[in-house]
Write a structure and sequence with these properties.
- The complex is a heterodimer of chains A (248) and B (1010).
- Chain A is an alpha/beta fold.
- Helices cover 54% and strands 15% of the residues of chain A.
- Chain A is built from nine helices and six strands.
- Chain A has a four-stranded parallel sheet, sandwiched between helices.
- In chain A, α3 packs across α7 and α7 packs across α9.
- Chain B is of the alpha/beta class and 1010 residues long.
- Chain B contains 23 helices and 51 strands.
- In chain B, α10 runs parallel beside α14 and α17 packs parallel to α18.
- The chains are: A alpha/beta (248), B alpha/beta (1010).
- Chains A and B meet through α1, β2, α2, α3 and α4 of A and β4, α2, α13, α14 and α22 of B.
Chain lengths: 248, 1010
């Protein structure tokens, strides 16, 4: 098996569970590389994307079971974030299955080993991540999760759906998630356009081909990117307008 | 208060028993400045809790929450763990005891044992594994459970055949067959008894056939079955054929509330709720809809929010069958037929795949013998005899008790009592605080911030645990090629004492400024290696550990090449990370040596008094003009003790104590600052004079009151009254309305409790009713008394009074919520109509008085809760930091709670909790300074957009928008989880030691082939 997998383990539950797997000698495939954080809440979506971008074929995040978080509810936040990463991966064509979130307690040594074996097997089924094909997408994903707008929406989800907004209304969770999903996709599409323009001046059709998105979608998103001053019309080549990156 | 002259007492304490109670008492005392000897007869600490699967009512994983405590106790500089040790005798008196301890041979030297497990793997003999109950076996060379502290093996001499194999394979040379029993004398100022309890052995009950049928198990066995680290790895299976059961019965009160087949007439206090928990968790584990039935007499879910847990279980489909179980008989090959008498008196039967006996607590013979050796009195049930108002003091001054030897109880009660006992012991020895504790002196620190990284890599063989799988020499040589590495070596055991000394030496000689250890796991060994750094004069944060044992050699045993490859990668990551690590300074901040106690009832008075006894200043703030609180309305306890003299004495002690400042008619007007340094303003007295109080901690003891019923015609007829009103009438009988002359009285339970508005049980009303019924009967034995109830929750020793009441002819009639009794008034006439569950028809009886057992409701704390930003539940009771292990702490550090502000409780229970709060507060103050900083989050004000994401996402509400309109995170309060960092839209927050670039560097370094 040639795939390599990055795993984030929280200090208090899942890392202890992984240690217990060792103490109990539960075997699992060696392709997993563990990085410990105090709380799964520290796992920034950027770290997950960076894992895939820099060469891992999958990223697993392990945390305490809901309700068991050493930091009360850090793992709630993790859960929402990983879900959004997975949505965008699916949308990008890379596939949501390359990122997995699981809960493992300090007593679940066998469960840890079982889960790693099962997920590793699934990753093997997916095969190595084709970075030549998805390089552009991964860079765009990285940019997407740098976006303040998306980070803000992710950060406010629990507040707005569970406690209330400035009008003292709770937003329906499903609606919020739809909205968040749509925002994530918009940000991602914009990022894709910008990434693609790094190759030099391009037409809408060329960008669409590079990004694997419909021409009309690119046309619409490009308008947003232009409005933000990040891309600009450069000039015509024949009848075809070409666009370039601009600004910072 | 101290009973000893200044300096004459010993500043150390002996704690007997290292279960959750003994551990908590030890931690509180050690943190308060006393040296603790913690003795346990078993080879490990942890007690029963380590065996449990999940804990109610939060369903927390027991091991997840206890193991950090185990590690803390195990590493505490001022806790001396004495395993395999029993107290032989105790001479002397309070303040100056000499205890003689006998330590049984362990045959494995803990100082050299690395817990690698080689001895176990070659051991040829086995015995029943008591940790997993009798469900599996263990070897003679064993560790009670993998996370055990001390983390070392022991040889069970009882089964060891002396073959000598383990000594041959132990590369650490830790096995010593010539180990002998040792007698040690230690001098201590106080003793805390927390030896725990035994669980009743149902083998002798032939009707239940526990000894005969494998599918009849005890509740502890069932805990092990459910546990992910248990014999069936958390899969729900029955022992006989390992089939997943489809139908399980729980039989309550096995070995409790019975004099038939056992001698335990008391209630074990915890079995109802644990049975519900086991049923709920079993349902979660089952692959199909598991049929769970609980056979019970009274459902005693009297603890905080337990009733809601009970209600949820009913919603989940757990069946509750009010009955008495007659027999368990064989049905077919391995099924069980349970015959029981239902509430209507009919004998019924049903077949189950499995039965769980909810076995109760019992004081073991060894503990009885221990009590005898120590010279403390036991009560008739063999529990420690204690005073109602001093529940943690035994009959021998200076010897305190906590946990299940004090009485049957659950984990939070044990933890509270442990802290309470620590407070009592601490106050006794206050003058000798910090006289026997140890401090570690380190050489001066070298500032390496301007030096380039010079990394030393130490690779451990861990005997053959790593070296047997991973090519350690190859890993070592690989490490040599990594950037910034200036020194590499490998050791047989990197953690051994001699290696530690040498490592510090090498670090100094070679000018190493970052250390990487590739060995076992940081969860157990990081603190040790950080100490090595401190010994070498380096900042402790300049360290990283590669886990090449637990997460490599042990889990890839059949893939040696890949395990070696992975070890290299893990070392590469640690080296890359180490190069980027920064020195972090833990800053010291002074702690104001005083406490603010809000509420002058039993809890507040006791908390203030104990803190003063510990040597701290206390400010006691009471909203009324008088001190005493709700207890002033209670004449006697159920044991018959007068409350008034106690309260008067308490108030007198508080009023005359020079360290306590009392402010009455007082209210808190502002609360500022943070743990260790709060500033409050209080308006007090008739003229509302303003007082400014500087304090390091705060204790909330705001109390509760009796609910004014809106039910049963209360208020329409003066002969319908509450229990507290009846109390007043019994104590001071009005001339023309003497209750002693009543012919018939009806009491109605659960008035304003266990209903829609207030789903919780008020815990104390059952005993109030029984107490007053017994008092009335004593005045007038002819009086007819009816108690209409839903479940008689006479938990623990209260059961004695319930039995006495039934013996005295008091009639207990049960009702369901769909058949509530009705009180009818007709002019001056008074009658109660109720449905008799035995006769199964409605009965109407005339009564001279109707007494309503009204709920206990939390006092109004709207203002103070918002000032201190502390949470309350739906019924206004404060919410503690953790329902199990931090029962008197708030999540906000430096603020504590106690008494009925936490939940309804008896006077004695309030005293215990008050002492517990005083202990927690005292151990916080005793440190005098607070270490802040380290691995916490910091905001870059330049980048912050004050968008509030961090404010909203912090689980602890620490970030605040400051006057400069940017977010500010108080480094003293930040817990370091990093949630805000990962959500900050502007990426303006950084978490020290887990910085963005440090994590990215780790990710990149983890990639094979770059």
């Amino acid at each position: 098996m040639s795939e390599v997998i990055l795993a984030f383990l929280c200090n208090w539950c899942s890392y202890a569970g992984a240690d217990l797997a060792g103490v109990s000698r539960f075997q699992y495939p060696p392709s997993i590389r563990v990085l410990r954080t105090m709380c799964s809440g520290r796992v920034d979506p950027l770290f997950i994307v960076e894992g895939l971008r820099s060469g891992f074929d999958a990223v697993f995040v392990y945390g305490c079971h809901i309700g068991d978080c050493h930091y009360l509810e850090g793992n709630f936040h993790t859960s929402g974030r990983v879900e959004t990463v997975r949505k965008l991966l699916e949308f990008s064509g890379i596939g949501a299955d390359r990122v997995q979130l699981r809960w493992v307690s300090a007593a679940e040594g066998q469960e840890f080993a079982r889960s790693v074996s099962e997920l590793t097997e699934a990753v093997h089924g997916l095969g190595p991540l084709d970075r030549d094909r998805f390089g552009l997408h991964l860079s765009a994903l990285s940019q997407t999760f740098e976006s303040s707008r998306l980070r803000w929406l992710l950060g406010m989800e629990r507040r707005l759906t569970e406690i209330g907004n400035v009008y003292d209304e709770k937003i329906d969770k499903r609606k919020y998630e739809e909205m968040l999903g749509a925002a994530a996709i918009e940000e991602y599409q914009k990022a894709l356009i910008l990434e693609s323009l790094l190759q030099g001046p391009q037409s809408v059709r060329e960008i669409a081909a590079a990004c694997g998105l419909p021409v009309y979608t690119i046309s619409q998103r490009l308008a947003d990117v232009e409005k933000a001053g990040k891309a600009a019309f450069q000039g015509f080549e024949g009848n075809t307008p070409k666009f370039i990156r601009s600004g910072a | 208060m101290s009973n000893s002259k200044a300096g004459s007492s010993k500043g150390s304490v002996l704690v007997v028993g290292a279960g959750v109670a003994g551990m908590q008492a030890s931690l509180d005392l050690a943190n308060s400045g006393y040296y603790v000897h913690l003795a346990d007869k078993s080879p490990t600490i942890g007690g029963i809790m380590a065996q449990l699967d999940k804990t109610f009512p939060t369903n927390d994983c027991a091991m997840c929450i206890i193991s950090p405590k185990l590690v803390e106790v195990g590493r505490h500089l001022n806790i001396n763990i004495l395993c395999n040790s029993e107290v032989q005798s105790l001479e002397g008196e309070a303040g100056n005891f000499t205890a003689t301890l006998k330590t049984h041979p362990r045959y494995i030297d803990l100082a050299s044992c690395t817990a690698c497990g080689q001895c176990r793997s070659v051991c040829p003999v086995t015995a029943v594994n008591e940790f997993n109950q009798k469900l599996d076996l263990r070897e003679a060379a064993y560790m009670r459970y993998p996370q055990a502290i001390p983390g070392g093996f022991a040889i069970d001499r009882g089964i060891c055949i002396g073959c000598g194999m383990c000594e041959k394979v132990c590369l650490a040379g830790a096995v010593h067959y010539d180990d002998q029993p040792r007698m040690t004398e230690i001098e201590v100022g106080a003793v805390i008894l927390a030896p725990g309890n035994e669980v009743f052995d149902p083998s002798g009950l032939d009707t239940l056939n526990y000894a005969k049928f494998p599918n009849v198990v005890t509740s502890i066995e069932f805990e092990r079955i459910l546990s992910a680290s248990g014999p069936y790895r958390g899969s729900l299976m029955r022992p006989y054929d390992r089939q997943e059961p489809e139908k399980i019965a729980w039989i309550q009160c096995v070995g409790s509330r019975s004099t038939n087949g056992c001698a335990n007439s008391y209630c074990s206090a915890v079995c109802c709720i644990y049975a519900i928990k086991e049923a709920v968790i079993a349902k979660e584990h089952a692959h199909h809809d598991l049929d769970c039935s609980i056979f019970f007499m009274d459902m005693r879910t009297y603890g905080k929010e337990f009733e809601q847990y009970y209600n949820r279980a009913k919603e989940l489909g757990v069946k509750f069958i009010r009955s008495r179980v007659h027999t368990i008989e064989a049905e077919g090959e391995a099924d069980l037929k349970i015959r029981y008498t239902a509430e209507d008196g009919e004998l019924r039967e049903d077949v189950f795949d499995m039965a769980v006996l909810s076995t109760g607590f019992e004081v073991g013979l060894e503990t009885v013998a221990l009590a005898d050796r120590l010279g403390i009195d036991l009560n008739k049930h063999n529990y420690a005899a204690t005073d109602v108002f001093m529940p943690v003091s035994t009959s021998r001054p200076g010897v305190y008790v906590c946990g299940t030897l004090q009485g049957p109880k659950d984990i939070p009660q044990s933890v509270m009592e442990a802290s309470g006992a620590a407070a009592a012991g601490g106050a006794l020895l206050a003058e000798s605080r910090w006289t026997q504790t140890r401090t570690r002196e380190y050489p001066p620190k070298r500032d390496v911030s301007s030096e380039p990284a010079k990394i030393g890599v130490f690779v451990c063989n861990c005997g053959i645990n790593i070296g047997g799988i991973v090519d350690v020499a190859a890993v070592r040589e690989y490490a040599r090629t990594l950037p910034n590495v200036i020194h590499v070596e490998d050791n047989l055991f990197t953690c051994s004492q001699d290696t530690q000394v040498r490592m510090a030496e090498v670090i100094r000689q070679k000018g190493i400024n970052r250390m990487v250890v590739a060995a076992c796991t940081p969860l157990t060994h990081e603190p040790l290696f950080r100490e090595t750094l401190l010994e070498a004069g380096l900042n402790k944060y300049l360290f990283d550990m590669a886990n090449i044992r637990n997460q490599d050699s042990w889990v890839h045993m059949h893939e040696r090449a890949k395990a070696t490859e992975k070890a290299k990668v893990l070392v590469r990551m640690s080296v890359a990370r180490a190069a980027m690590l920064k020195q972090l300074e833990d800053r010291k901040v002074g702690i104001t040596q005083s406490a603010l106690v809000v509420g002058g009832g039993v809890a507040g008075l006791n908390a203030a008094l104990n803190l003063a006894g510990q040597g701290f200043k206390a400010f006691l703030v009471e909203k009324e003009t008088r001190l005493g609180g709700l207890a002033e309305k209670i004449s006697r306890t159920i044991e018959g003790t007068n409350v008034k003299p106690y309260i008067d004495g308490l108030v007198e002690q508080v009023r005359t104590n020079g360290s306590i400042e009392v402010l009455t008619q007082a209210s808190l007007t502002s609360f500022k600052g943070y743990k260790g340094n709060f500033t409050s303003t209080v308006e007090a007295g008739p003229d509302k004079a303003e007082h400014t109080i500087e304090h390091g901690v705060a204790i909330l003891a705001t109390g509760a009151h009796e609910h004014k019923p809106v039910e049963y015609g209360y208020g329409t007829n003066e002969r319908i009254m509450t229990q507290l009103e009846l109390d007043e009438m019994i104590e001071h009988p009005p001339a023309e309305k003497d209750p002693g002359k009543w012919k018939r009285v009806v009491m109605i339970q659960c008035v304003g409790s266990r209903n829609k508005q207030n789903p919780d049980c008020s815990r104390i009303c059952c005993q109030s009713a029984v107490k007053h019924a017994l008092q009335l009967k004593e005045t007038n034995p002819e009086m007819e008394i009816y108690i209409l109830y839903r479940d008689m929750r006479m938990y623990g020793m209260l059961e004695d009074y319930y039995m006495e009441a039934r013996r005295n002819g008091i009639v207990f009639a049960r009702f369901d919520t769909d058949k509530e009794p009705e009180v009818r008034t007709n002019g001056t006439g008074l009658a109660v109509v109720f449905s008799d569950h035995v006769l199964q028809r409605w009965v109407k009886i005339a009564a001279d008085a109707v007494v309503l057992s009204a709920a206990t409701r939390a006092n109004d704390t709207d203002a103070i809760a918002s000032q201190l930003k502390v949470p309350r539940n739906a019924n206004g009771f404060f919410i503690e930091a953790h329902a199990k292990l931090r029962p008197v702490d708030f999540a906000s550090e430096g603020i504590f709670l106690c008494g009925t502000a936490h939940s309804p409780k008896l006077i004695g229970e309030s005293v215990t909790q008050a002492l517990a709060a005083a202990s927690r507060a005292g151990s916080f103050l005793a440190g005098k300074t607070l270490s802040v900083g380290g691995a916490v989050a910091h905001v870059d004000g330049q980048r912050c957009a004050a968008c509030l994401v961090c404010v909203r996402s912090c689980p602890y509400n620490i970030p605040k928008i400051n006057e400069e309109q940017v977010s500010e995170i108080n480094e003293a309060l930040c817990q370091g989880c990093g949630t805000c960092v990962s959500e900050c839209p502007a990426k303006a927050i950084e978490l020290s030691h887990y910085e963005h670039n440090q994590i990215l560097a780790s990710i990149h370094a983890l990639l094979a082939g770059h």
